[in-house]
Amino acid sequence: MTMAEPKNVPVESKVSPKPSRDTPRKNEIPDKILKSFLNREIGLSELDNISKIRAAFLWDVEGVERYRIDVWQKTYHDDRIFPSVKIKYSFFVHYYPEKQVIKDIPDEPKSKKRKLC
């Protein structure tokens, strides 16, 4: 008994190419605008040991997108082997995609930096 030879049938690829990071996906703040906002608010370019930045989309109302932006920072302690990683800064913002503007919605006076730790 011989096995039938497989036929050469073309197979369509169901895998789509990854989207380019140059163009933001829907409900995503472009990196350039996010970094500009964080430089203005917390001096991001001068901070050390930043381990993660996340801009999490929350919801959209009439073309204004709401996000929570969190900035994690590593802190090294003499009495510990591993650094602690905590959210050091957090913002609730409105992002206007047409104008490409982020507006912070403060819950305290603007003169105070909202440092969590």
Describe the fold and architecture.
The chain has 117 residues and is mainly beta. It is built from one helix and four strands. It is elongated, with a radius of gyration of 22 Å.
Sequence of strands across the biggest β-sheet: 1-2-3-4
What is the β-strand count? 4
Low-pLDDT stretches: none
Our measurement of the CA-to-CA distance between the termini, rounded to an integer number of angstroms, reads 74 Å
Indicate the overall shape: elongated
Radius of gyration of CA atoms, rounded to a whole number? 22 Å
Helical run tally: 1
Main pleated sheet? 4 strands, antiparallel
Order of helices and strands: HEEEE
Question: Structural class of the secondary structure composition?
Answer: mainly beta
**Helical fraction:** 10-25%
Quick summary:
This protein is 10% helix and 35% strand. It contains one helix and four strands, in the order αββββ. The longest helix is centred in the N-terminal third of the chain and has 12 residues, at 31-42.
Describe the secondary-structure layout.
Blueprint: H1 31-42, E1 50-61, E2 64-75, E3 84-96, E4 101-104
Antiparallel strand pairs: 1-2, 2-3, 3-4
Keywords:
117 residues
